[in-house]
From TrEMBL:
<dbReference type="InterPro" id="IPR052433">
    <property type="entry name" value="X-Pro_dipept-like"/>
</dbReference>
<keyword id="KW-0479">Metal-binding</keyword>
<keyword id="KW-0645">Protease</keyword>
<feature type="domain" description="Aminopeptidase P N-terminal">
    <location>
        <begin position="4"/>
        <end position="138"/>
    </location>
</feature>
<dbReference type="InterPro" id="IPR000994">
    <property type="entry name" value="Pept_M24"/>
</dbReference>
<dbReference type="GO" id="GO:0005829">
    <property type="term" value="C:cytosol"/>
</dbReference>
<keyword id="KW-0464">Manganese</keyword>
<keyword id="KW-0031">Aminopeptidase</keyword>
<keyword id="KW-0378">Hydrolase</keyword>
<keyword id="KW-0482">Metalloprotease</keyword>
<dbReference type="Pfam" id="PF05195">
    <property type="entry name" value="AMP_N"/>
</dbReference>
<dbReference type="Pfam" id="PF00557">
    <property type="entry name" value="Peptidase_M24"/>
</dbReference>
<dbReference type="InterPro" id="IPR029149">
    <property type="entry name" value="Creatin/AminoP/Spt16_N"/>
</dbReference>
<protein>
    <recommendedName>
        <fullName>Xaa-Pro aminopeptidase</fullName>
        <ecNumber>3.4.11.9</ecNumber>
    </recommendedName>
</protein>
<dbReference type="GO" id="GO:0070006">
    <property type="term" value="F:metalloaminopeptidase activity"/>
</dbReference>
<dbReference type="InterPro" id="IPR007865">
    <property type="entry name" value="Aminopep_P_N"/>
</dbReference>
<comment type="similarity">
    <text>Belongs to the peptidase M24B family.</text>
</comment>
């Protein structure tokens, strides 16, 4: 299995600590276990920030980073080994494993955190945490601070500055290392195979969930623990619902099916959309729309390179889509004026992409100082233009209504331009029709 090497977690912690102000401390909790119903839990997914800094896969854990601490800069609070619980729920690292296998300098039982952590915070001037994202943890943090304040008359020094950790950490996460790109390539490779499988399986009479099952099978067989987000399998008019999740409609002859799905490997997402005809042959109208979306995506790729700004790829898609809709008679008027008036928005209402990484809609600022961010080597993003003609759009001829097309790929910015991670699924009309014909 391809995964992030241990040494990279050490490097990340050191890089973060190097950016923290002198005499500070950073504190991050693991994701909580989420209850699904009664005593059934959701599949556990570690918090992305916590995972980024530790690779530690368990709940009930807290990372503490203390730059310059003599007895070790990286302290991990975690669950203790427990034969009875491990018999039921699986192995735990325990405090010894946290040091031996996960690089902690020091580890303590999570049950002792209230006794130990105030002592670690005491005397540090600043506390970095993900303020505001976890109300329960924020409350605990204030309780630990209050323990120190209550001892002020004994000379205890509570910190006097609280700093949001996100700014430093999320900027680090925006730039993908070689090891991260390797993991993202693997997630992309498996997701491509899944889309190919679903294309080959597509037939009228099946249901959307039949194709979802093909995706899940390939994801799991490839070693992915789970999809990176709820798979969208949308046929017919459902393809015009951007985040459709129901996935239970019948696949009909003559309709398109839009699949937006990707798996996650070692907590790194992939995010692919392909749209194809259920019966393997595009109709004239479906093909006309599809070709515009595809051309707009090609135009966007050409705008992804170091020193291009974030919005250029989006602007390229708007240009091609608006011109294409005019050519088909779906919009009337001058292309530049239509763009200025956002006339394309009833057909193309979302942006051309987003950052991609540990979170499918990954962290990182899109604007810096009020200006669109300039792309740099190692940034990963999606390119996902689409045209959606509402089934209720009375302004267009009936033959166009209910057609929804999105094409989405994942890219990493390179020195020369960008690397497309998800090139392994057919994309042109000819390629898709050939693959589907061969599977019949
Ligand atoms: N799958 C959600 C998105 O493409 O942004
Ligand atoms: Mn996306
Ligand atoms: Mn997507």
């Amino acid at each position: 299995m391809i995964h992030i090497p241990k040494a990279e977690y050490t490097r990340r912690r050191k890089a973060l600590m190097a950016q923290m102000e002198p005499n500070s401390i950073a504190i991050l909790p693991a994701a909580a276990v989420a209850i699904r119903n009664r005593d059934v839990e959701h599949v556990y997914r570690q918090d992305s920030d916590f995972q980024y800094l530790s690779g530690f896969p368990e709940p009930e854990a807290v990372i503490v980073l203390m730059p310059g601490r003599q007895h070790g800069e990286y302290v991990l609070f975690c669950r203790e080994r427990n034969a009875e619980r491990e018999l039921w729920d699986g192995l735990r690292a325990g405090t010894e494993g946290a040091i031996r296998d996960f690089g902690a300098d020091d580890a303590f039982p999570i049950t002792d955190i209230d006794d130990i952590l105030p002592g670690l915070i005491e005397g540090r001037d600043r506390v970095y945490s993900a303020m505001g994202s976890n109300a329960e943890f924020d409350r605990h943090l204030m309780e630990w601070i209050n323990v120190i304040r209550s001892k002020a008359h004994l000379g205890a020094q509570p910190p006097n500055e609280f700093v949001a950790l996100d700014h430093l950490l999320h900027d680090m996460r925006l730039y993908k290392s070689a090891a991260e790109v390797k993991v993202m390539r693997e997630a992309a490779r498996i997701s491509c195979a899944a889309h190919v499988k679903a294309m080959q399986a597509s037939r009228a009479g099946l249901h959307e969930f039949s194709l979802e099952a093909e995706l899940d099978y390939e994801f799991r067989k490839g070693g992915a623990k789970m999809p990176a987000y709820g798979s969208i399998v949308a046929t017919g008019r459902n393809s015009c619902i951007l985040h459709y999740q129901q996935n239970d409609a019948l696949l009909k002859d003559g309709d398109l099916v839009l699949i937006d799905a990707g798996c996650e490997i070692d907590c790194y997402a992939s995010d692919i959309t392909r749209t194809w005809p259920v019966n393997g042959r595009f109709s004239a109208e479906q093909k006309a729309i599809y070709e515009i979306v595809l051309a707009s995506q090609e135009a966007a790729f050409a705008e992804i390179a170091p020193n291009k700004h974030w919005n250029q790829a989006h602007e390229a898609t708007v240009q091609v889509i608006t011109a294409g809709l005019v050519k088909l008679g779906l919009l009337q008027g001058d292309v530049d004026e239509l763009i200025a008036g956002e006339a394309y928005k009833p057909f193309y209402m979302h942006r051309a992409g987003h950052w991609l990484g540990m979170d499918v809609h990954d962290v990182g600022e899109y604007k810096v100082g009020g200006e669109w961010r300039v792309l740099e080597v190692g940034m990963a993003l999606t390119v996902e233009p689409g045209i959606y003609i509402s089934p209720d759009n009375q302004n267009v001829a009936k033959k166009w209504r209910g057609i929804g097309v999105r094409i989405e790929d994942d890219v990493v910015v390179t020195k020369q331009g960008c690397e497309i991670l998800t090139g392994g699924v057919p994309k042109t009309v000819a390629e898709i029709e050939a693959l589907m014909a061969a599977a019949r």
